Amino acid sequence: MAQKPNIPKGTRDFGPIEMARRNYIFSTIRSVFAQYGFQQIETPAMELMTTLMGKYGEEGDKLLFRIQNSGEKASEAPEKGLRYDLTVPFARYIVQHREEISFPFKRYQIQPVWRADRPQKGRYREFYQCDVDVIGTNSLVSELELIQIVEEVYRRLGIRVCLHINNRKILAGIAEVIGAPDKITDITVAIDKLDKIGLEKVNDELRERGLSEEAIDKLQPILALEGSNAEKLETIARILAANEVGTKGVEEMRTILDLAKDQTLPIELDLTLARGLNYYTGAIFEVKALDVQIGSITGGGRYDNLTGIFGLPDVSGVGISFGADRIYDVLAELELYPESMLNGTQILFTAFGDAELRYALVWAKALRAQGVRVEVYPEAAKMKKQMGYADAKHIPYVAIVGGNEMEANTVMLKEMNSGEQRQVTLDTLCKILQNNLIG
Amino acid sequence: MAQKPNIPKGTRDFGPIEMARRNYIFSTIRSVFAQYGFQQIETPAMELMTTLMGKYGEEGDKLLFRIQNSGEKASEAPEKGLRYDLTVPFARYIVQHREEISFPFKRYQIQPVWRADRPQKGRYREFYQCDVDVIGTNSLVSELELIQIVEEVYRRLGIRVCLHINNRKILAGIAEVIGAPDKITDITVAIDKLDKIGLEKVNDELRERGLSEEAIDKLQPILALEGSNAEKLETIARILAANEVGTKGVEEMRTILDLAKDQTLPIELDLTLARGLNYYTGAIFEVKALDVQIGSITGGGRYDNLTGIFGLPDVSGVGISFGADRIYDVLAELELYPESMLNGTQILFTAFGDAELRYALVWAKALRAQGVRVEVYPEAAKMKKQMGYADAKHIPYVAIVGGNEMEANTVMLKEMNSGEQRQVTLDTLCKILQNNLIG
Question: Is the pTM of this model over 0.90?
Answer without folding.
Answer: yes
